[in-house]
Amino acid sequence: MAPFQALASEHLPVQPPTGWLLYDSDCAVCTRLANFWIPTFVRLGLFVAPLQSPGVSERIGLDQSELLRDLRLLESNGTLHSGPDAYRFVMRRLWWAYPLYLLSMIPGLHKLFDAAYRTFARNRRMLSSSCGSPR
């Protein structure tokens, strides 16, 4: 698969070592979180870009409305992780978050973690506008 040419900046390699973390840039909360965690993501070999970037929808194979429902993590090898699984991918690779990853894998807590993510995802734009969170 061809790398996201449109997502790369002049000073970063076109294809990140690990992959792309893709977030909804229309959501102020998502944008703020993505920007805050960029240094950590870069250490993990992840580049960060909006889901609305040119070529993302085609590369992932989802229409825009489906694409924007979840955070996405596209590994360099083409594997796609969505929603809570994208969070698990990152937590598994951070020594200090690894215990949270393990907890999120326990059957009952797995469902709770997924439900918490789904609740946030459904309400994130309302949260962004109600708290006046700047991007």
Q: Could you walk me through the main structural features you see in this protein, from its secondary elements to its overall organization?
A:
This protein has one domain (17-131). 50% of the residues lie in helices and 13% in strands. The chain has helices at 28-43, 56-60, 64-67, 84-92, 98-105, 107-131, and strands at 19-23, 46-50, 72-75, 80-82. Helix 4 packs across helix 5 (98-105). 24% of the residues are buried. Mean pLDDT is 85; it is low at 1-13 and 130-135.
Any descriptors?
disordered C terminus; 6 helices; disordered N terminus; single chain; four-stranded mixed beta sheet; 135 residues; alpha+beta
Concise overview:
This protein has 135 residues and is an alpha+beta fold. Helix content is 50%, strand content 13%.
Number of strands: 4
* Helix percent band: 40-55%
Q: Note poorly predicted spans.
A: 1-13, 130-135
Q: Quick one: overall form?
A: globular
Widest sheet: strand order?
2-1-3-4
Strand content: 5-15%
Mean pLDDT: 85
Output the radius of gyration: 15 Å
The largest pleated sheet is described as: 4 strands, mixed
Give the ordered list of helices and strands: EHEHHEEHHH
